[in-house]
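Researcher: Last one for today. Full complex below.
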Amino acid sequence: MALAVMLLNGASFHGGCCRPKVLLSSLGPLLSNSKLYSSYRRPGAEPEKKLSWQNADFSFKKAIDHLKTQLSLLKKETQDYLKGPGGHALSQHLLEQTRVLWQFRSQEDLNKWVISSDVEIGGKSKVYIKLGRNNQAALLYGTLNTEVPRDGETQYSGYCSMRSRPAVGSFNRKKYYDWSNFNSLYLRVRGDGRPWMVNIYTDPYFSHQKDDLYTYFMFTRGGPYWEEIQIPFSKFFLSSRGRVQDNQHPVWLDKIRTLGFTIGDKVDGPFQLEIDFIGLLNDRAHKEKFAYEAYDKNTPV
Amino acid sequence: MRPGWLRALPRRLWGGPAAPQLCRSLCQRPARVPPAEGGTSGGDTSGGDTSGGDTSGGGTSGGDTPRTSEWHRRFHKIWENDPQPRGHPQSPVGGGATSGGATPKAPLRHLRSYRSRREDAHGDAAGDRDAHGDPGDPGDPGAAFTAALEELARSPPGRGGRLALVEAALAALPARGAGRSLAAYKALLRLLPRGAWVPRGAVQRLLFPFPRQQECGLRLLECMERHGVMPDAETRFLLLGVFGPRSRPLRKLQRMQFWLPRLRHLDPHPLPPRLRPGLAAARLGLQRIATEPGATVTLVQRPVPESGDDEGSVQPYILSSQSPEQRELLARHGPTRPVFVEGPFPLWLRGTLLKYFVLRGDPLPPHLRDPPPDPERSFYFPLRLELELERGPWDDEDFQVDRVEEGPVLALCVAGAGDRRTLGRWLAALQRHNPALGRVPVLFRLTGSGAEPPEGPPPPGWARGPPGPRRWSPPRMGVSPRGAPGNKGWTDGVRVPLFFGGVLVFLGGLQVFWVVFGVVSCFFGGVL
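Model: Here's the assembly. Have a good evening.
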């Protein structure tokens, strides 16, 4: 049973699939028509005719190159492991109070982020990212358009987002960030007065929870001065598919996969956000464990 | 109606312990109005409204499409007769023994929120609290719609087509300007029948009873949530009457009443609830961004016409802000280095877009800057006293990163248009208090249609208007903008490819448990 599960999980041949599709591709023709675990398909878009395992490309040279890169990554990981927790010295791990996660000084820093908008569901918002003046900050800008795509299913539209690429180890294994030494997120941004949502995705083990996001808001003020926004992790509430959940719990800081910024404040028009850097802060004056009540809220109405 | 054999069944099978009593209390409505009186009974309500009259026998025609149901016809008649918005709180309800079985006799004042009672007292229902920026007409379209709905609730034509009308009215509510009015939602709820859609017993509740009706209720609450309207106890009472306890709309209302108060006041820089348009909004915006101590906002040019924020207006407004420190900095700015006018940058005030321009100085190279003052330059008393008792000297909260190097901000301006003449007027006004500005070369760095290179993603080109000239310096010519030392100018960005595939789906990695297995699959998998 366990072996079968492992074979199933290991036997997919390409990296462009998410976990549910692995199951789908292994059981091939059996579930080819099933929508049980399929990923989102935009209403009106044609279903994919080609099955995922048919995209495999057998090339020996590419495989050798790939193997080389993965082995070098593995070597680096081993060295980091021997150095100390998280690849830093133990003293740094124990004493650090601040850490810079992402800063935007070059194009490869920008490549660590992915931007998306409601074009995926058929909307008309536009979003772009580029380096600011003198390669000193990232400028995320675009236009929000709340016109609902006419596919009969969608009710609302108008969002743009920027998410970090999930960390990937050697051989495409998932890596999680460990932020348990810190209790606040620190952002140095310069906005235009529009409110943004900050989302943390923890990529949970069970696929039922794959839409779970920990969310909070970032209110920019606008103006020529940089803002330093600190958001404690105790303020992030659990939401799924845009709905705040009843059972709340604080975010687990040692299993974080991606961070994202979304704008969807229902106002049509251009938006702009400059980000200098994103970091973590251990604010010793912040003692709150969790800002929301964790008890059962589904009392008799 | 339930058939006789079902009514004869013992209660336990179909109804729960308290359901019969509750349903009985919720179903307290008078007998159905016979068709002949349906027309005349609706005519004795408030105002000069003659909605009665010639309605063809009030009984519903069951085979009608919802479009042409009796409810729709009655509502359109009321709407065309231009109902009076409710001016005083206690409007008389048309005669006791008639229709209006779906409405409570008097508004339940003790259950209403403070805000909805204040709305009544002031007589304006909808447009006061603006959603995103400018209020349109002060409450007129929304109040009229609400009044029409209430009128219809007082004289309902029959029993069919109610749900369709409510769904249609809900879809039209934002367009009619009543999206922010709690009274409109309550009027909609009063149109729904009380007690008919309450499930009897746990078994029926389990099987998602009255799905379309409950979905309509949910959609109504969703519309309220989207517009930021907080439901009060009267809304809960009305929903309880329509759907019964432990129904989905009630559950959603419970969640709204739990979460909306928590999420409403999160903004650390809140705007006032009402934003006056035009110059007042611009002044508020400038005060918001000019955070230097002692900054004063001066009106340089009044808009002509009053709402003069378009390119084509005769005279756009100009508001300028500068603080004494900035004046001093500008005075010390040598004539060999230029100052830059940058803009226009966007500033949003909830739903209003303003443009602001910045007068920035040239940042000095690091070796020419003044060294920071020595913190121990006075031994007699501390020059900075920070009494943060929870943070001690062992806390090191500095980030190991270089901050963005930019020149100092010397003045700010919010203008209706970004063309050369307007900015020139602003600079002339600044020059009155800063004579140094006359000697310093001023360079314009305006983002506009012509200021960016065409390749690459389109720039933040939302500033409409002709680009300003490259240089404007009255006494002597300065350096060219591209060749200014220390400034590389704009850089071209490369568009990161869009991430297709849905908001919540990621490019997941391959799940490989063993490294060896991964190596093997390298050879057999090819592209990974």
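The beta strands of chain B are 296-301, 318-322, 339-349, 352-360, 409-415, 442-446, 471-472. The first helix of chain B runs from residue 4 to 7.
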